[in-house]
Amino acid sequence: MTTTLFGYWRSSAAYRLRIALNLKGATYDQVAVNLKEGEQGGADWLAIQPQGLVPVLEHDGDRLLQSPAILEWIDETWPEPRFLPRDPVERCRARGWASIIACDIHPLQNLRVLKTVAGDLGQGPDGMKAWAQRWMSSGLDALETLVEAAPRTGSYLGGQTPGLADIYLVPQLYNARRWGLDVAEWPALEAADAACQALPAFQDALPENQPDADG
Hints:
The chain is α+β, with helices and mostly antiparallel strands. The protein contains nine helices and four strands; from the N terminus they run βαβαββααααααα.
């Protein structure tokens, strides 16, 4: 049984999958798709992923696309530790928190969107940064409010152990810092992030710890 993650060291979506696979104790190889140099737009990659996106997870010859779907597959393939609570309401809450990042923040600060803002829309680097900060801040403000109001035990968004929402949160706060945001503005999220970062599964998944990291 072989598992290969095609991704890029700074891709948030690939970062999520590294965390998830590490938490499950799964063994996997990595193949880099260099987004900085435009490899994702080449014919070879488009034959694998027609959208020109990463990541793709290949498992025993099957190629799986889109990180939300792949995260579900990972959780079903390696049942422990669970990423979602057993209680239906708590499970829905965890999915909702994750979706704030997956649906409302990340797509608006994806590389292809930022390049469009800077180039096609003529906003340049400063406009690109303002755009990224605007939508990250808005989404994280809402998530912070929800997390603070929710009944929660444990250090993680998932409670006593990291769960689906934590898998989404950590890469998003990494990006927030990259774009110059002070994550101390979201103390509940920052605390959950710090708890996660103390775990080897999260440390090993850090972008700068990946074989294709270019500094």
